[in-house]
């Protein structure tokens, strides 16, 4: 029996070794593109891009009204934008979290990622950073549009005799505080949505689970707040905000970032509770990331 050696054209790779950081950046870019359906079919793009358009509509409409009315009170409070539009943000969370948290688990591709120079920490943080970036853009772009609209119309409001036109410095301070609030919203909402989606590998169940947690926590907190306010116990109504993500972050906005309580003054976080709400928000992010890493570490074993 004779043997033969065939030249199949194999060559050693002599190029640069890009390493772990390059892999992490590539994962971040891939996940961010996936969240908006970029590089995929029209069906994958429809929901995220439609939700992004819906997020912009109130800001564009408000600027149009401002251009006719030329009165500063018609401008939506920057810090309230995410609160007013939380149903749209919740739909984005529910539909897009499974896109980057569930598919790798469902199709069991996690071990393939870990066969390369990428750690569990890199893998999870790349997904988390991509989701935070997408959510931050979803909320911060309309707020920025509102601020630019105010700057463009301020001179016309003053010339039109509008009373109490805010100063540029004051309004810009509120804008940057609102951006800090948007970042905290993105961190908290991304962490809890990805965690839920990672434990429900089938996309349909993941969508339902994220939406259920959002709705149930909101309903329970609203019931507690309503009962507390009706009995005159505003302290309990304020502390109840710790147990749902939107009011949790809003407590930080009001008590630490100087946002005006406005229409939610009755159930806003109690005076002096800002550090507690901030620590609770950071705890949600930290614990969620630890559990996510544990989930993907087991899946990659």
Automatic annotation (TrEMBL):
Q: Which region is the signal sequence?
A: none
Q: Which residues cross the membrane?
A: 46-69, 81-101, 128-153, 174-199, 205-224, 276-293
Keyword list, A-Z: Membrane, Transmembrane, Transmembrane helix
What this protein is called in its record is ABC transporter permease
Organism expressing this protein natively:
Actinocorallia libanotica
């Amino acid at each position: 029996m004779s043997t033969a050696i065939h030249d199949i054209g194999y060559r050693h790779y002599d190029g640069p070794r890009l390493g772990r950081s390059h892999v992490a950046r590539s994962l971040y870019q891939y996940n961010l593109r996936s969240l908006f359906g970029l590089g995929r079919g029209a069906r994958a793009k429809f929901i995220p891009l439609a939700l992004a358009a819906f997020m912009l509509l109130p800001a564009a409409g408000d600027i149009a009204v401002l251009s006719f009315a030329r009165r500063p009170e018609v401008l939506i409070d920057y810090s309230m934008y995410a609160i007013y539009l939380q149903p749209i943000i919740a739909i984005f969370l529910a539909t897009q979290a499974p896109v980057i948290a569930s598919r790798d688990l469902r199709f069991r591709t996690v071990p393939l990622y870990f066969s390369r120079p990428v750690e569990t920490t890199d893998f999870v943080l790349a997904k988390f950073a991509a989701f935070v970036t997408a959510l931050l853009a979803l909320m911060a772009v309309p707020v920025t549009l509102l601020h630019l609209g105010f700057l463009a119309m301020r001179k016309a409001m003053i010339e039109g005799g509008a009373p109490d036109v805010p100063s540029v410095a004051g309004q810009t301070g509120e804008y940057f505080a609102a951006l800090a609030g948007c970042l905290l919203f993105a961190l908290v909402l991304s962490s809890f949505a990805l965690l839920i989606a990672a434990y429900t590998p089938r996309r349909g169940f993941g969508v339902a689970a994220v939406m259920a947690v959002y709705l149930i926590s909101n309903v329970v907190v609203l019931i507690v707040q309503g009962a507390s306010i009706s009995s005159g116990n505003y302290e309990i109504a304020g502390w109840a905000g710790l147990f749902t993500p939107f009011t949790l972050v809003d407590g930080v906005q009001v008590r630490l970032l100087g946002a005006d309580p406005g229409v939610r003054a009755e159930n806003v976080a109690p005076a002096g509770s800002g550090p507690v709400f901030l620590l609770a928000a950071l705890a949600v992010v930290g614990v969620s990331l630890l559990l996510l890493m544990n989930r993907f570490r087991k899946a990659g074993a």
